[in-house]
Design goal:
By secondary structure, the protein is mainly beta. It has a single domain, classed as 6 Propeller (Neuraminidase), CATH 2.120.10. The protein is about 0% helix and about 35% strand. It has one helix at about 15-20; strands at about 30-35, 65-70, 75-80, 80, 90, 95-100, 110-115, 125, 130, 155-160, 165-170, 175, 185, 210-215, 220-225, 240-250, 255-265, 270-275, 280-290, 295-305, 330-335, 355-365, 370-375, 390-395. The strands form six sheets. It has a five-stranded antiparallel beta sheet. Strands 5, 6, 7, 8 and 9 form a five-stranded antiparallel beta sheet that branches. A four-stranded antiparallel beta sheet has the order 10-11-12-13, with no helix packed on it. Strand 14 (about 210-215) and strand 15 (about 220-225) form a beta hairpin. The chain is globular and about 60 Å long. The two termini are about 30 Å apart.
Length: about 400
């Protein structure tokens, strides 16, 4: 999203929390860390009296603290390709590395995946993996109206068997690619989710379709989220806050099936750039918007009850339906309230640490029951934006 606007059922992969060593987020000398206070720092009680807890200077909210950020990937050139347009983030256990997909750059540059390690000071491992059709033709970022190979890859997850799951906003679609980058399969997407005008049933807004994608830690549930509301889900009063999430489950013989649709309600004017599963029943949801007068607005929420959430597939208009159908959510933080960490911005931001964050991943469990969470920003191939990684420590409900 540009801000200016049958599969093999191999053994279930462990969660990123179990696979990722705690050192993966360590801050080397010279990294943009949050300082010596640490996440959740407090004074230790002295014998004979109670001391007052020291507020965490790195807190964005009572539940979220900023750990550090890195611009090391920004405009980086590797083997003749530029690291840019990153809208996703997922842990690839086979390489023990993080992967991120290039989104639509409006050009015929091939669509590919980057691999890198150390989220506090990332280093690209090798040339990017080109994503191709079954016949070997590369997908690219050309205009969808005239380019049969066009893709706008926004969401990314790694399946239990090591295949890459990639959602594209163009149609939209959810494709499965092998380790060689060649497409192997595609998940079903309901007809209503097609972009308006491309099919008779389509109700989605162009460039606001399947942006978020995640897989649960047990490897058995895939969730894909719509960035915007379907036109059929907008109320008569113009309320467009009802978004649909597609829930797929791994069945017998390793086949993924669409199990249900569930509803999530954003704040007014907000979109859903990304989701990340932190348990088999709960997600972190990113809500965001942008304007020239406010800059980027990014808020994080936790939602629980994915398993018991009602199937709204048969609900014609969620905007007119009872609000109780939506997943309950808990606000974690508005990132404008984070410390700046000394970051700079190339265009107006209320907090210079903010950018067009579109990718997000849970990076591991921390002491005290907190989770590591990292966001990556999509620079839209613009000189006025960064490719930035923002590392957070989060206490989830």
């Amino acid at each position: 999203m540009h801000q200016s606007l049958g599969l093999a059922g191999a053994a279930i992969v462990a969660s990123a929390a179990a696979l990722l060593p705690q050192s993966a987020l360590a801050h080397p000398v010279g990294a943009h860390s949050a300082g010596s206070h640490g996440v959740g720092a407090s004074a230790h009680p002295s014998r004979g009296h109670r001391s007052t807890p020291v507020p965490d200077p790195n807190a964005c909210s009572p539940r979220v603290a900023a750990v550090g950020y890195s611009d090391a990937l920004d405009k980086l050139q590797v083997d003749g390709a530029e690291v840019s347009g990153l809208s996703s983030l997922a842990w690839d256990a086979r390489q023990r590395a993080w992967v991120s997909a290039l989104d639509n750059n409006g050009q015929t540059t091939p669509e590919y995946l980057w691999s890198f390690r150390d989220l506090s000071d990332p280093r690209v491992l090798h040339a990017p993996l080109v994503l191709k059709k079954a016949d070997g033709t590369p997908y690219d970022g050309g205009p969808a109206a005239t380019d049969p190979n066009a893709a706008d890859d926004e969401g990314l997850a790694v399946l239990p068997n090591g295949d890459y799951l990639v959602s594209s906003e163009t149609e939209p679609s959810i494709r499965v690619f092998g380790r060689d980058g060649v497409q192997r399969a595609e998940l079903p997407v309901p007809a209503r989710f097609a972009v308006t005008g491309t099919t008779t049933a389509g109700e989605a807004t162009s460039n606001a379709t399947l942006e978020g994608l995640t897989i649960t830690p047990d490897g058995r549930t895939i969730v894909a989220s719509m960035e915007g509301a379907l036109s059929g889900d907008v109320s008569a009063s113009g309320d467009a806050t009802a978004h649909r999430l597609l829930v797929y489950r791994l069945g017998r013989h390793g086949h993924w099936t669409l199990a249900k649709q569930v509803e999530y309600r954003t704040g007014a004017g907000m979109r859903i750039p990304e989701i990340a599963a932190y348990s088999n029943n709960a997600l972190v949801v990113e809500e965001a918007t942008w304007s020239a007068t406010t800059g980027n607005v990014v808020r994080l929420f936790a939602v629980d009850g994915l398993r018991r959430a009602r199937d709204v597939s048969a609900v014609t208009n969620l905007g007119e339906a009872p609000g109780r159908l939506a997943l309950p959510k808990t606000e974690l933080a508005d990132l404008v309230d984070c410390p700046t960490l000394g970051a700079s911005a190339l265009e107006f931001q209320q907090n210079p640490l903010l950018d067009n964050y579109e990718g997000m991943a849970i990076t591991g469990r921390e002491r005290g029951g907190r989770y590591g969470l990292t966001l990556v920003s999509d620079d839209n191939n613009s000189a006025l934006q960064h490719t930035r990684l923002l590392n957070l420590s989060v206490r989830l409900p």
